[in-house]
Amino acid sequence: MTPREIVNALDRYIIGQDEAKRAVAIALRNRYRRSCLPPELREEITPKNIIMLGPTGVGKTEIARRLAKLVEAPFVKVEASKYTEVGYVGRDVESMVRDLVEESIRLTKQKRMELVKDAAAAATEQRLVELLLPQQKKQQRTVNPLQFLLGSGQPEPEEPKPTEEEQQARKTLREQTLDRLRRGLLEKEIVEIEVEESVSAMMFGASGMEFDMGGMLGDLLPKKKKAKRMPVEHARSILMQQESEKRIDMDDVNREALQNAEQNGIIFLDEIDKIAGNANHMGADVSREGVQRDILPIVEGTTVATKYGPVKTDFILFIGAGAFHVAKVTDLIPELQGRFPIRVTLKDLTEDDFYAILTQPDNAITKQYAALLKPDNVNLSFTEDALKEIAKFAFRANEQNENIGARRLHTVMENLLNDISFNANGQHPMIDVVVDGAYVDAHLSAEWGEDNISKYIL
Length: 458
Ligand SMILES: Nc1ncnc2c1ncn2[C@@H]1O[C@H](COP(=O)(O)OP(=O)(O)OP(=O)(O)O)[C@@H](O)[C@H]1O
Ligand SMILES: [Mg+2]
What we know:
Layout: H1 3-11, H2 18-35, H3 39-44, E1 50-53, H4 60-70, E2 75-79, H5 95-132, H6 145-150, H7 164-182, E3 190-197, H8 202-205, H9 213-220, E4 224-231, H10 232-246, H11 250-264, E5 266-270, H12 282-300, E6 303-306, E7 309-312, E8 317-322, H13 334-338, E9 342-345, H14 351-359, H15 365-373, E10 378-382, H16 384-400, H17 407-416, H18 418-423, E11 431-435, H19 437-448, H20 453-456
Parallel strand pairs: 1-8, 1-9, 2-5, 5-8, 10-11
Antiparallel strand pairs: 3-4, 6-7
The structure holds adenosine-5'-triphosphate and magnesium ion.
């Protein structure tokens, strides 16, 4: 994707914030450009990490998340403020890389599963049919080893072959069962399948160790198999899982996932301003600076050991984000600043932006509510002036109370549609509910309107 295409794709979900969109689009394209270079040169070029500055709820996380989704890059979002310096209680900074690898494994596995989906589904169906058929009398085929070696094809008299009719009958039964299974008539039938009992990670939970003991030991200890009876509807997903895993080479997945995490991974470091030193509080500064110093090597490029193997962090893209109300970017230790050469500022959202956010994005909140109420036979729609009113109310609420950005739209909409959401129950024929300006006024003015402004001016 060209940078312009990336920006266009982001435009489908995020309103405005062009500067930030451009910056991430360029960073992404640079990865592609880099991958085209000869290896010696490629090794030299590390990503230009980005810091996004901007108030809460204006799209920082959303842009990064969408970006990662767009290109199916492994992505994790971590709060910089929850890390502590090595030696203190808390999460150590390397865990962010391990999280990224886990995510990468998940993505790769999911992709492979998708590839084998049809084959696995067919095999699952066959197994279910087999389980549902009445057990054939077990005729132990005792092959005489001598006979076997000599390759004599002498028919064994004590084991009569099923007759033509028997075979035919069984085939018909099989077809009928398959047909009924496909028509969903056998979902409640009980079948017995073998499930793997994973070694309980609980045993280790209490120790409070960060280490994934269950996972580590789980790979070492032999898996216990256990027969379990359950309805077809449950058995299907377990068999599907088993059949998929049979068709996937996990070593291959690990290798590809590690590579993908190294080359295409994105780590979103939220609240990076919270670990910036603030000259006045000496006490807190020490550990904040400590965290920055711990993060530094990871951003600069180091190798982190994970349970899937070592991971180089040199080419992972880091996107820092923070409001930077109190601390400034320049309060970060210079080495760290230097590793985030690109700064973009996200703007406060305007009333017009709110209006656009309500309607335009593919996942616009008005569309979400409409979709959510459909199953309860409510056909929800909004008039133009209703949307204008909602945007206005949300904007004013942000001015009068805390400015929580676009998140305000969610609270406003929730308030607005509270009655409808509560009363819709699906026990009525499809009804059209049109939310118009008057409805918005009536429902929101009590909450945020002029009459009540005094409530907020104490
Ligand atoms: N510019 C925008 N266009 C569309 N939706 C937006 C925009 N900004 C924010 N939103 C919506 O608002 C919500 C919060 O946005 P987001 O998580 O990106 O905030 P943020 O900038 O990361 O804030 P914080 O600093 O609190 O983490 C999301 O549901 C997002 O879809
Ligand atoms: Mg955020």
